[in-house]
Amino acid sequence: METLVHIFDWIANNPIFSIFIGFGIFLLIVFLKDITQTKHTIKHNFPVVGHLRYFLEMIGPELRQYWVANDKEEKPFDRTERRWIYATAKGQNSNFGFGTTELQYEPGYPIIKQKAFPFPEEKAHHIMGDKTCVPSLKVMGEFHKRRYPFRPYSIINIAAMSYGALSKNAIIALNKGALEAGAFHNTGEGGISPYHLNGADIVWQLGTGYFGARDASGRFNINVLKEKIDSSPHIRAIEIKLSQGAKPGKGGILPGKKVNAEVARIRHVPEGEDCISPNSHSAFTNVKEMIDFIELIATETGLPVGIKSAVGEIEFWEELAKEMKKQKKGPDFIAIDGGEGGTGAAPLTYADHVSLPFKIGFQRVYTTFQKHGVVERVVWIGAGKLGFPDRAVVALAMGCDLIYVAREAMLSIGCIQAEQCHTDRCPAGVATQNWWLSKGLNPTMKSDRAALYLKGFRKELLSLAHSCGYEHPAQFNGQDIEISAGMNRFVTLEDQLGYKKTPIKFKRMEDYGVFPVR
């Protein structure tokens, strides 16, 4: 004991020297551990300093993001794109100075052609006095005479992102932001959580796991679905997910780290275990059965029912269009997701190489429905990196009626593109179930930012429409946009994709200010 007292006294009298000795002992322990382990070659061959390699690898994305990459290099969203979202969401100046930094002759670059005589902004009609209101020109469920048709107040809406993939505070922020902006909020295939019920219109997505609408064996149960719909008037439509752009042909993947007790209870799955959805639906196996499934849900609930899918083979869409024409039944809306779309977790090959990119996939499906004369029966939704005004204009010119935004909405509430969604270590508290990290996301403040992003997006869309002589952005067509086909050569979007959009029957904005309620 006396020896220990002397040691502590010496340490107290020689603090700096003691720190060096302690640090040396620590390094010696690390050195001995490294040269005796056989799991990591780098650590064995380069003891102590080998750890630096793993540390640099860990922080590599952050180093490149903030110090190395230029404003246009980063993927999937470069720094200028993120800056526009952040500034818009904060209500700050979202303008840029000194002119474009884009390579306008690069193949695929879009140019929106303004009119010599724009639509006068002083003549614009503002529905409900909202200068950012851009309603859907089509009504979901109108053609099939559903009991509760739905005209979205906003053509820009929040795409499918589940509670579980996202934190509860992120879901609250997005839902309250959607409410403030008049947008609807897609639940994602994880089902309806308490955090989706803050007042915004909801589109309930049913994936292959039927989370929130299934029996004890995991199969779809119409009575469970009806019970939840009856208890929440905010549910305005049902979306059946066939596939998504980032992992088409494969079910949802929620890592076990994110399956906490509440997520497990909502989904009726084991806590702490990977939640892997089946890759196909058990309620139907072909087009006719799918239409029957759609009609069952629509009849029992009165809600519009649609589908969401990435695009691979075209035969499915041919058969669906034929059956819709023949039966006068089928989906009220179709969301086409491009291969550019994001996800919380997916195998790399699926994310990179499976499903067509948005423009090609949409073109093939839309022209198929045009050919069979059923394109006007459907409300068309585009998805896949469309959360910017220029990309939304292209999608609307192609025939989309509505636009889904997902990762861009995440950025608006604080996502920093750390690409840690699958690890449960999202530093911004957006895509994690870690209580400490998610607590850092203030849902009240971030909901304001989500709303400002959605409103700012619509405001810029309206401005672009007015510049091109239109009152509503859905009036854009393929002649209004030219695409670079190489140096000194531009072709219209219409010529590049080989079809003309079916014209929108539009007279004046005030004709679209009636929103059916449930």
Topology, number of strands: 13
Query: Radius of gyration from the CA trace?
Result: 26 Å
Category by helix and strand content: alpha/beta
Count of DSSP H/I helices: 17
Into which percentage range does the β-strand content fall? 5-15%
The helix/strand order is HHHHHEEHEEHEEHEHEHEHHEHEHHHEEH
CA-based shape: globular
For the biggest β-sheet, the strand order reads 2-11-10-9-8-5-4-3
Average pLDDT? 90
Largest sheet features: 8 strands, parallel
In whole angstroms, the N-to-C terminal distance is 79 Å
Parts with pLDDT < 50 across at least 5 consecutive residues: none
The level of helicity is: 25-40%
Q: What would your notes on this structure say?
A:
- The chain has 518 residues and is an alpha/beta fold.
- It is built from 17 helices and 13 strands.
- The chain has helices spanning 2-13, 15-36, 41-45, 50-68, 79-89, 168-181, 222-231, 261-267, 287-301, 315-327, 348-353, 358-371, 389-398, 407-412, 435-439, 443-467, 493-497; strands at 110-112, 156-158, 184-186, 201-206, 235-241, 253-254, 275-276, 305-310, 333-337, 379-383, 402-405, 481-484, 490-492.
- The strands form three sheets. An eight-stranded parallel sheet has the order 2-11-10-9-8-5-4-3.
- A hairpin with a 5-residue loop joins strand 12 (481-484) and strand 13.
- Helix 6 (168-181) packs across helix 16.
- It is globular and about 95 Å long.
- The termini are far apart.
- 45% of the residues are buried.
- The mean pLDDT is 90.
